[in-house]
């Protein structure tokens, strides 16, 4: 699905859950998620008639699969994280948990490939042009948010992005923690420009694949393998140099995650433990409930 092409693709499986849970309406929001994703697919691709029906069915099929296949594991993940959050964590543990999330993403992409292929082979050149324009608009939004010409403004935007995510887990953070975030962000081996290059690489690859499928009049079955390869490449690049960069970025992210957590207060750790417990309980209920 198009979510696989967002700048946070490697964090989708957890990020989606956290974003919904942060609003304290996880169960309701998850039930509504297929409708939201379908709307976004339609907007990005300008689908018509039967295409919309096919997209709606594909999205619902994917979420029904995830509800049974992945939510129990994500619930258990959060239950473990609840206990781990009560003490210090190591970068190695943070990376171990990140690899679990990557595993969900890869499995989700593998499941999405044949579903997205059904839609991809029905797209017209005009619809592919529409998607390319949609990506351009998203790129402009990203540039407005994170790629200001002034270096200090770019740094401030990056700091605030991390602060926002930290507060979703731990609640309010203090001035010392904000200063630590700024220092940690400064040490990262990548910046918003590098992330944007990765986003655009995946977007361009998708557009090229869709045009090729359209020109070849490929069937959904023929589109599955290249679509699966593209989705997997969006999670972890197959190019050795790009893969090495991604792994280096991930390692730095694990270092930062452990450092930031280990400088939280006892109250903040109780906050994140309580939130993780609530999310784990909700996901456990969702995994056993029938889709609406």
Structure, described:
- With 292 residues, the protein is mainly alpha-helical.
- 81% of the residues lie in helices and 0% in strands.
- It contains twelve helices and no strands.
- Helix 2 runs antiparallel to helix 3, helix 4 (71-84) packs antiparallel against helix 12 (266-288) and helix 8 runs antiparallel to helix 11.
- The two termini are 20 Å apart.
Q: Helicity level, as a percent range?
A: over 70%
Q: Quick one: overall form?
A: globular
Query: What letter string, H or E per element, gives the SSE order?
Result: HHHHHHHHHHHH
Helix run count: 12
Mean pLDDT: 89
Strand element count: 0
Short recap of the structure:
This protein has 292 residues and is mainly alpha-helical.
Annotate the secondary structure layout:
Layout: H1 12-21, H2 26-45, H3 49-69, H4 71-84, H5 91-120, H6 125-146, H7 151-170, H8 175-187, H9 192-216, H10 220-235, H11 240-261, H12 266-288
Throw out a few tags for this protein.
0% strand; 292 residues; mainly alpha; 81% helix
């Amino acid at each position: 699905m198009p979510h696989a092409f967002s700048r946070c693709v490697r964090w989708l499986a957890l990020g989606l859950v956290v974003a919904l849970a942060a609003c304290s309406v996880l169960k309701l929001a998850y039930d509504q998620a297929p409708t939201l994703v379908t709307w976004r697919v339609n907007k990005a691709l300008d689908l018509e008639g039967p295409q919309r029906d096919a997209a709606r069915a594909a999205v619902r099929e994917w979420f029904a699969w995830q509800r049974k296949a992945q939510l129990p594991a994500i619930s258990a993940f959060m239950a473990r994280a609840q206990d781990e959050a009560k003490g210090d964590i190591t970068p190695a543990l943070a990376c171990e948990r990140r690899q679990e999330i990557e595993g969900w993403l890869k499995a989700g992409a593998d499941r999405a490939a044949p579903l997205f292929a059904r839609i991809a082979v029905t797209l017209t050149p005009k619809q592919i042009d529409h998607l390319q324009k949609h990506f351009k608009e998203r790129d402009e939004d990203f540039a407005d948010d994170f790629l200001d010409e002034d270096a200090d403004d770019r740094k401030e935007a990056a700091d605030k992005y991390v602060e926002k995510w930290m507060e979703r887990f731990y609640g309010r953070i203090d001035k010392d923690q904000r200063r630590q975030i700024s220092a940690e962000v400064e040490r990262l081996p990548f910046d918003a420009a590098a992330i944007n290059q990765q986003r655009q690489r995946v977007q361009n690859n998708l557009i090229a694949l869709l045009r090729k499928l359209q020109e070849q009049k490929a069937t959904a079955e023929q589109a599955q393998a290249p679509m699966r390869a593209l989705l997997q490449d969006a999670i972890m690049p197959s190019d050795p140099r790009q893969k090495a960069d991604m792994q280096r970025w991930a390692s730095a992210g694990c270092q930062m995650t452990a450092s930031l957590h280990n400088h939280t207060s006892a109250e903040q750790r109780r906050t994140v433990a309580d939130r993780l417990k609530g999310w784990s309980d909700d996901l456990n209920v969702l995994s056993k409930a029938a889709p609406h």
